[in-house]
Structures are given as C-alpha cells and as structure tokens.
Design brief:
This protein has one helix spanning about 140-150; strands at about 5-10, 35-40, 45-55, 65-70, 75-80, 95, 115-125, 150-160. By secondary structure, it is mainly β. It has a single domain, classed as Phosphatidylethanolamine-binding Protein. It is globular, with a radius of gyration of 15 Å. The model has no long low-confidence stretch (mean pLDDT about 95).
Length: about 160
Amino acid sequence: MPTSGFTLSSPDFADGARLPDPVAFEAPGANISPTLVWQGAPAGTLSYALTCFDPDAPTGSGWWHWLVINLPASVQQLAAGAGESDATLPAGARHMRTDYGQYAWGGPHPPAGHGPHRYQFTVFALDVPALDLPAEVSAAVVGFNLNAHALAKATLTGLYER
C-alpha cells in the first residue's frame, strides 16, 4: 500500500518516543487523547479513520485503544482530548468500540513491570466518504473494512510503561 508523502505526527511526542503521562488511562495519566496531525494524503481520499493499537498487550491478540471512523476528508488533525466522546470529534466522525468496551479513547495501561509497550497510531486515507458499520462490531471487523478501503496509511508509534 503506498504511503509516499502521507505522514502522521504529533506535537505531543516524537515517533518512537515515550508518550506523555496525560494520555495514560490512570494516574499519573488523565486519559486524554494526544494531538495528531496528518498530511500528504493521496488523491481520491474521501475520508479518514484513525486507530491506536498496542501489539505488546499480553492477550495474544494485542489491544485496541482507539478506533475513529468517518473523519471528513477536510480534517487533517485531531486536538488533544478529541477522543473523549463522539461530541468532541469533527462532525460526522464517530468512535467504534475499543477493547476497553468503550466508544472513546482508552489510554495506555500496560501491566506494571511488563516493560515498554508500543502504541501504534495509524491514520487511514479511505476511498469512501463513510463506513456504514454497526456500532457493536469488533475491532477486527473495523480493521478489515479500513484495510479494504485504504488508499494509504501512516503510522506514528509512542512508547509507554508502568
């Protein structure tokens, strides 16, 4: 899948660096989603989606911390705290259920002493204006649909440990 020129960044952390404490699920965190900015989407992009996945969670299948679909093509950033609820997202966008069972950002909360976990934020440039998915579908179904409609994707990885 082409990614040339399509990038995801954050003023809150650099790629491969430690995530700031405010994004963590519990103290010292405040469960505030980070600011994310993307640019360079390919021609034909009709919407975006955003995910955050921890492949290091000791579940055998990772952990989905954030799933946002139907971000309008005119949107190229999410402010800190946008993951609080659908009301804090751009018009038309919506959260899908995370592995916390919530429809919102669920910050990092790796097991104490488990070592650093990678939190992979990925923005997808999609070839459809919206995904018509039932709210209760699994993260795997969301991921299948994102990959089926992706023109490009860009990933930014942050680290966190307790």
